[in-house]
Amino acid sequence: MRWFLWVNEHASEFEEKYPGKYLAIWDYEIIGVGKGGEVYEEAHHRRPDVIPYIVYVPGEEKAVLLV
After folding, report:
1. Is residue 61 part of a domain?
2. Could you point out which of 51, 57, 61, 62 has its C-alpha 20 to 30 Å from the C-alpha of 15?
3. Looking at the domain assignment, is residue 29 inside a domain?
4. Which tens digit of pLDDT belongs to each residue from 1-54?
5. Looking at the 3D structure of the chain, how many domains does it have?
6. Phi and psi (nearest 5°) for 53?
7. Which domain holds residue 39?
8. 34 φ/ψ angles, rounded to the nearest 5 degrees
């Protein structure tokens, strides 16, 4: 829960730096950035002893509202 709050506090920064990417977070630090499975592989390489919190940073995808 605490990392979720931290991510929300930094959401605009992450949206600017990492649009359309996944972030692997551990102890208030980004330990991996990538698309799909890349992010977990990078995080595992940096911190093989942990299971990180993975979040998706929305990109500039267009939302479609169906009425």
Report:
1. no
2. 51
3. yes
4. 687 888 889 888 999 999 999 999 999 999 999 998 899 999 999 999 999 999
5. 1
6. -85, 120
7. 2-56
8. 175, -170
